[in-house]
């Protein structure tokens, strides 16, 4: 039997485009006699994630209208094929408000009405996921018969197990299928990307393929919705190798012939790999070196592609064709500028703005200029020296006292933010933030200053990882980033001879401490027992706990790690902090 994976790329709630493309696919299958099973991602008909959108009456009314139109269309089709499509099934009150919402698989066959045949059973409720808030949990496994083939169905999280739920969809499906010959296990998915995720999917899929004596078909969506990036990379695998792999980061359709199974399921359930929750919150720390695990070349490649894809998705869906980035001569802004430059599409433009103060070194300009020459990007210079001086004079004459120290440093950053957005307003460009995860964690940024931007590219990358990505880019793009940017000591250049290490531990140790903290894996005492210095650990924890208010107002962050700041990180700003001290 032919299996056709439709790895799709649509904007959330773009019903006109979603349903139009689906109807065209069905029409093509009917005319070309493209027999077999056509598979679409989880919630294809609506997009994902939906959050409170799925509760809004205009959304519900529009979706129901398009769904009924599709239903009428399929009843007129002719052919012999099966479409499995992810969507929502509503149970509404008399006033049209949702009583129940189910995340389902619709079965569509020519000449027949749409039929919801399976409801997602394992509703994730951690990190960025809050499906239990919206959806009603399914109760039964599902195996369908089609042309003498038995097909077992799952939706996304159902392929995993979790000790935090009292159900195991794979185990239940296994029990349902015992003694049967299953031709394929099919998973409709909307699975976000993060570091190491592709390998974990393959490991789990091959475990299931071995368990059911048949190929595992994984169909994932493509797209970036605000902070969350979906990479696609759909596949068909047996227990040892992928038989088919779709492209990452773009829509793709591929087909494969799979024979009818000749091996009934008759063995005991195999031990399950680690479950979702435990895998998600594993800290990427080398306990011997007391540093983060090195990023492999493959992972660096994935991250660059993910960030380039994410920033383009955000810009295009928000209506921007121009990008503006503040360039400092430092590592973070250099990497952001390079990634955005590499992502540019026809009709788009990018400009860099260098805003020196009295503390900026000539080297910062030279390195910024060299980078822009390498990237063939226009560099504009907007000095803040006189604005800074005027601001100081104004405040001193008004309040009869001069500002100094941190106040003097922060005003420089805020003046740069003002100029950056003045230029953004002038040409209608999108400002891309340049802060990294290390700075966000300890509050080493200025609110409404260097923390401004429409989207953050590096907000889920520690500083030490930023350097690894820069070295990777240089190895692949002929030393695009000037070596002087990579080798110079990091500095905000907000006072004379300033270095980041004046305020923070070396990034190698800082990042490891933060990773232990942010994955919820380690307490202060755990980190100290691992070998980190007590004073350093206490200092980092203190900086972290005092910076919640800054993170709360930060711009959206492209998520590329298992635990990031942003939508999946929700901590009260006004919490008591004594428990940190008592630990």
Structure commentary:
With 583 residues, this protein is of the alpha/beta class. It folds into two domains: 2-280, Carbon-nitrogen hydrolase (Nitrilase/N-carbamoyl-D-aminoacid amidohydrolase, 4-Layer Sandwich), CATH 3.60.110.10; 293-500 and 548-562, HUPs (Rossmann fold), CATH 3.40.50. Helix content is 38%, strand content 19%. It is built from 19 helices and 21 strands. It has a six-stranded mixed beta sheet with strand order 5-4-3-2-1-14. A six-stranded mixed beta sheet has the order 6-7-8-9-12-13, covered by helices on one side. Helix 5 (197-212) links the parallel strand 8 and strand 9. The protein is elongated, with a radius of gyration of 26 Å. The mean pLDDT is 92.
Brief write-up:
By secondary structure, this protein is an alpha/beta fold. The chain is 38% helix and 19% strand.
């Amino acid at each position: 039997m032919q299996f056709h994976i439709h790895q799709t790329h649509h904007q959330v709630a773009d019903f006109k485009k979603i349903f139009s493309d689906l109807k065209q696919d069905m029409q093509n299958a009917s005319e070309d006699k493209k027999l077999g099973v056509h598979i679409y991602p989880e919630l294809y008909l609506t997009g994902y994630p939906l959050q409170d959108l799925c509760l809004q009456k205009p959304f519900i009314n529009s979706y129901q209208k398009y769904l009924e139109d599709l239903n009428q269309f399929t009843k007129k089709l002719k052919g012999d094929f099966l479409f499995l499509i992810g969507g929502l099934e509503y149970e509404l009150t008399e006033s049209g408000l949702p009583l129940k919402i189910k995340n389902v698989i619709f079965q569509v066959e020519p000449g027949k009405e749409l039929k919801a045949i399976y409801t997602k059973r394992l509703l994730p409720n951690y990190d960025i996921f809050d499906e239990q808030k919206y959806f009603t949990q399914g109760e039964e496994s599902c195996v369908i018969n089609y042309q003498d083939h038995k097909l077992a169905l799952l939706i996304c999280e159902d392929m995993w197990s979790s000790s935090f739920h009292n159900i195991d969809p794979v185990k239940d499906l296994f029990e349902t299928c015992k003694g049967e010959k299953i031709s394929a296990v099919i998973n409709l998915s909307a699975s976000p990307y993060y570091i190491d995720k592709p390998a974990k999917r393959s490991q789990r899929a091959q475990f299931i393929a071995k368990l059911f004596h048949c190929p595992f078909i994984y169909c994932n969506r493509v797209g970036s919705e605000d902070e969350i990036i979906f990479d696609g990379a759909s596949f068909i695998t047996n227990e040892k190798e992928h038989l088919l792999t779709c492209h990452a980061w773009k829509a793709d359709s591929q087909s494969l012939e799979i024979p009818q199974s000749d091996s009934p399921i008759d063995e005991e359930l195999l031990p399950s790999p680690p479950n979702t929750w435990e895998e998600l919150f594993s800290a990427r720390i080398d306990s011997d070196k007391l540093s983060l695990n090195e990023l492999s070349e493959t992972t660096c490649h994935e991250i660059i592609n993910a960030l380039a894809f994410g920033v383009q998705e955000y810009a295009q869906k928000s209506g921007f064709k121009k990008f503006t980035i503040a360039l400092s001569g430092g590592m973070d802004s250099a990497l952001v500028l390079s990634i955005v430059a590499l992502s540019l599409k026809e009709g788009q433009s990018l400009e860099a703005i260098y805003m020196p103060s009295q503390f900026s070194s000539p080297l910062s300009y030279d390195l910024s200029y060299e980078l822009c020459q390498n990237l063939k990007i226009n560099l504009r210079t907007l000095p803040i020296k006189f604005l800074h001086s005027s601001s100081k004079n104004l405040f001193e004459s008004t309040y009869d006292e001069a500002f100094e120290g941190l106040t003097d440093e922060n005003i420089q950053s805020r003046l740069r933010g003002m100029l950056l957005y003045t230029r953004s307003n002038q040409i209608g460009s999108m400002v891309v933030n340049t802060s990294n995860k290390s700075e966000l964690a300890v509050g080493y940024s200025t609110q409404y200053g260097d923390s401004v931007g429409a989207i953050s590219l590096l907000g889920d990358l520690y500083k030490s990882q930023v350097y690894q990505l820069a070295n990777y880019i240089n190895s692949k793009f002929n030393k695009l980033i000037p070596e002087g940017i990579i080798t110079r000591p990091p500095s905000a250049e907000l006072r004379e001879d300033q270095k980041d290490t004046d305020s923070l531990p070396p990034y190698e140790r800082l990042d490891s401490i933060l990773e232990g903290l942010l994955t919820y894996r380690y307490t202060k005492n755990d980190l100290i027992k691992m070998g980190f210095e007590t004073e350093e650990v206490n200092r980092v924890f203190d900086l972290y706990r005092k910076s919640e208010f800054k993170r709360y107002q930060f711009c959206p962050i492209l998520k590329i790690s298992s635990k990031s700041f942003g939508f999946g990180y929700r901590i009260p700003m006004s919490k008591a902090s004594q428990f940190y001290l008592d630990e």
